[in-house]
User: Which sequence fits this backbone?
């Protein structure tokens, strides 16, 4: 039998895939071996020079990467706990359930950049309402100009902005759970805490893993909040990988080197997310492991 | 263990509606302590509603529920001492079999020694001892269902073990074994077992007493034999037995004779004058005999179809427009086209307005 014609039917799809997915990656890889910058624009070949520079002489990238790791893991963890908690609150029959469900989703519906501008105003050291409050106690924390506090501010804004997304996923998960395990636990005489530990939490494990992974991927791309809120400062204390790559590529026009950074970042992210997914499966799904 | 009593219990899911529709029409019934009961009926007949009222998952809109003379209508599930096994096994996945079985006792703060003894006792009864330290995830569906059941049995004070179609997910062979196990448990612990099913074979082989329900009503309560021989309504006749009872509209000819079309049949029921209209005659296909000689109550019929079911044959025959189904032994020799059938008067049930004339 002749199956050659099947390629004709597959070709359009494959070409589109190649064009929009594979080509940009291959181009980035090729770019990372070039010294393309504002002085020498063009796709020349300089071997692995960029990679040598990245691994031996670029502390700032690795610092920004560690900072990103810390930032995304802690914010996603907080988002998960708060989102799950809120979802549990409006899951059961309570008054004004619909109102609360919509209320909790509002931050997600706003535009991140604009909301960050508003947050920046909130945290403005001399004019913002946050310090109006703290001044009552004779304090004026430098929210945006202190290394640690600036990071905390970024985290607060991130958690505020993205907890609703977690809330939405967790609520959808809770609403889809079967009734019987809860009835059985009630019959067994389990308290609310036991019900949560042995019924709700294990049943929510697959959804939790999915939600956390999605948020981790999203959180790693953090860019707009940092750009508007602190621009990576003070110094480089809130700079994350994507922001650093942006600076190298679009501020300093080191196109070749920023391609090297992007590609390395992609590889590290794939590896670390795989490990994180495995780790999450292990802790969330005790019974399923092995 | 306890005697469970329903007094005028009924349930309507929407009490505020103008025309109340009852999922379960008010009725009274007593479940004796240590009995084995089956609730049998088609889907949507109110079986599960009744079971949930008993376990406290639903508070009935009408009437009261008593456990040993105590009114528990408004007592919450946790305080009712009921065990329930659901259609699909409900187990705690993150725990071992031992912890699963111990869970109801731990929730009630029993001391660990007592828990250990009791769990081992129940595990032995259910043949789960070798799995005690395994995670429940790895077990088969029937083992998981045994754990669900075991969680009910570890508590000595359960008023009743309620089962909502618990064997649906289990293979036929294991179903048989589990049913036997349930009977053993009932004999040993004298636990009241209440079993919901829509499978009549399951109900017949499991229970001493079967409660047949239809459209929110309890239609008949009786032993398997009573339901088979004297179905109280035509619905029970149709629903119990395979194939369903042969039921024909008929007219009274005299006090003990009816006619179906032109066919006259003697019956053993004395028909009072008040119940001589709107009659039906029912006869089980098992009780119709194939005979060689014409006599009283014999019918000549044309054979349409003979089906071989392995352990018996089912003959479908017609006389005029009357369809008759007859169950015969597998080895019986069946004539090609015409057959002579005897309808024994003692097995004929007469129904007036769909209810048995006794």
Assistant:
């Amino acid at each position: 039998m002749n199956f050659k014609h099947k390629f004709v039917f597959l070709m359009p799809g494959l070409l589109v895939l190649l064009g929009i997915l594979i080509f940009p990656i291959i181009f980035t890889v090729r770019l990372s071996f070039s010294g393309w910058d504002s002085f020498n624009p063009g796709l020349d070949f300089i071997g692995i020079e960029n990679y040598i520079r990245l691994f031996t002489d670029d502390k700032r990238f690795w610092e920004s990467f560690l900072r990103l790791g810390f930032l995304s893991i802690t914010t996603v963890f907080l988002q998960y706990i708060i989102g799950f908690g809120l979802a549990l609150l409006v899951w059961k029959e309570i008054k004004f359930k619909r109102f609360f469900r919509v209320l909790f989703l509002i931050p997600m519906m706003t535009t991140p950049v604009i909301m960050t501008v508003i947050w920046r105003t909130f945290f403005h050291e001399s004019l913002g309402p946050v310090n109006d409050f703290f001044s009552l106690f004779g304090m004026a924390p430098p929210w945006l100009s202190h290394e640690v506090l600036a990071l905390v501010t970024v985290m607060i804004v991130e958690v505020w902005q993205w907890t609703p997304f977690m809330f939405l996923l967790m609520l959808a998960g809770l609403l889809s759970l079967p009734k019987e395990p809860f009835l059985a636990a009630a019959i067994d005489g389990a308290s609310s805490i036991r019900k949560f530990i042995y019924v709700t939490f294990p049943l929510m494990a697959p959804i939790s893993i999915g939600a956390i992974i999605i948020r981790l991927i999203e959180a790693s791309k953090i860019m707009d909040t940092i750009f508007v809120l602190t621009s990576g400062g003070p110094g480089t204390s809130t700079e994350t990988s994507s922001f650093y790559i942006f600076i190298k590529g679009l501020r300093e026009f080191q196109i070749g080197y920023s391609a090297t950074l992007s590609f390395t970042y992609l590889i590290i992210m794939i590896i670390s997310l795989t490990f994180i997914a495995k780790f999450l499966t292990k802790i969330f799904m005790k019974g399923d492991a092995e | 263990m306890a005697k469970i009593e329903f007094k005028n219990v009924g349930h309507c899911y929407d009490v505020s509606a103008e025309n109340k529709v009852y999922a379960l029409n008010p009725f009274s019934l007593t479940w004796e302590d240590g009995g084995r009961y089956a609730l049998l009926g088609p889907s949507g007949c109110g079986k599960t509603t009744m079971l949930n009222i008993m376990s406290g998952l639903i508070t009935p809109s009408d009437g009261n529920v008593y456990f040993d003379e105590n009114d528990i209508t408004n007592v919450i599930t946790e305080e009712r001492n009921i065990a329930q096994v659901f259609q699909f096994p409900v187990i705690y996945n993150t725990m071992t079999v031992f912890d699963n079985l111990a869970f109801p006792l731990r929730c009630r703060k029993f001391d660990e020694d007592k828990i250990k003894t009791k769990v081992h006792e129940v595990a032995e009864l259910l043949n789960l001892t070798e799995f005690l330290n395994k995670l429940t995830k790895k077990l088969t569906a029937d083992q998981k269902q045994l754990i669900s059941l075991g969680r009910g049995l570890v508590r000595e004070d359960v008023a009743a073990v309620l089962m909502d179609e618990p064997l649906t997910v289990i293979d036929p062979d294991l179903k048989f074994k589990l049913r036997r196990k349930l009977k053993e448990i009932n004999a040993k612990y004298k636990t009241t077992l209440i079993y919901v099913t829509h499978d009549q074979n399951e109900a017949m082989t499991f229970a001493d007493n079967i409660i047949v329900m239809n459209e929110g009503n309890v239609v008949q309560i009786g032993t398997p034999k009573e339901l088979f021989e004297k179905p109280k309504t035509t619905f029970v006749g149709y629903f119990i037995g395979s194939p369903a009872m042969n039921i024909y509209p008929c007219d009274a000819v005299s006090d003990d004779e009816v006619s179906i079309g032109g066919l006259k049949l003697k019956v053993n029921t004395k028909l009072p004058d008040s119940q001589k209209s709107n009659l039906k005659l029912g006869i089980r296909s098992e009780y119709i005999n194939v005979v060689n000689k014409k006599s009283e109550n014999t019918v000549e019929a044309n054979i349409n179809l003979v089906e071989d079911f392995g352990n018996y044959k089912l003959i479908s025959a017609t006389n005029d427009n009357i369809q008759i189904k007859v169950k015969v032994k597998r080895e019986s020799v069946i004539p090609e086209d015409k057959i002579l059938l005897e309808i024994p008067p003692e097995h004929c049930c007469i129904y007036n307005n769909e209810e048995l004339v006794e």
Observations:
- Residues 34 and 192 of chain B are 4 Å apart (CA to CA).
